[in-house]
Amino acid sequence: MNKWIELLLGLILVNLVIFLAWFSGEWFGAFWNFKHAAWEFFKGGVVWFLLMIGFLLIVLGISDLKE
Asked: What pTM value is reported for the model?
């Protein structure tokens, strides 16, 4: 696929998700509450990211102890 088409399609999708998340509570009602779902997903992602960084630091520390 052309790199410009990929870039344009990616920008459209990102803007669509931001638009849906921002206006979901006002236009679509409680059934389409993407803002809450996106926030919960982000909070869970932050927890897993910090957990993986912790495991990475432990593995790097053990690796440094072996040397």
From this structure: 0.52
